[in-house]
Amino acid sequence: MEAEQLIAPTVRQTEFHLVGFVSDDQLRAAEELRRGAELWFTLALRVRTVDGELPTLVAYSGHLTFPVEAGEWSSQLERVDAGSFFEVLVPMPEAADHAAAVRRLQEARRLLRDNQLDASLGEARKALEPVLEAVRAQGLAKGASEKRARERTLNERFAVLVEDVFSLLSGAAHDDEITKDFQFTRAEALALLATTAGLVNRLAKQQI
What we know:
208 residues; 7 helices; 51% helix
């Protein structure tokens, strides 16, 4: 952060403004961490000035800690998001059991950045495979298919979602009579990648 004007150390109370930069990733991380609560900020300050009878450059350092109420933070965040786009941070599991899926998703994200949509969705499909196996092991989707949608339990509805997302992702990996003409847009690829990440995270949370 930088001050807008020169600051001189003084024993009198004074006011000054600091201007800094926060990236989109940092904002999303802050939103995930606060979970609707207030935020506490700590600024590490280091001020340099010229002081003494024989002017020399000296430095002062310290910390400034202060809260930002949830309402104030939300109102300011809305101003930042105006005219922007909506994005959700999906924490990835750290357990070794899910390391392969996380690597697949990271590779899928890299491929998406390079605009290699089909390759990205292929990696996402591989990441979703353990989630699909867990769902099928419980027989949830099969039981759900025999019910009307409104009669399905929460887990059954997620099971159907997993099956459908896997089916969509398979459309990018296969080239059969039906899927050979599939052309995914970037918006569709983004939606499928984000959904896959969320389903991988959900499976990891259930196994903790």
